[in-house]
Amino acid sequence: MQQGKMGYASEEKLLIVNADDYGMCCSANAVIERLLREEAISASGS
Known about the structure:
1 helix, single chain, 0% strand, elongated, mainly alpha
């Protein structure tokens, strides 16, 4: 298998989740903070 630019094999499928609602409201912040702690997401834009 050939390695792609992100360090995964070029045949592998990736799911990129954008948690860009941080700062929108308290409930969105709470969920995004929990997902960050659980390492279900790695970043969030505001």
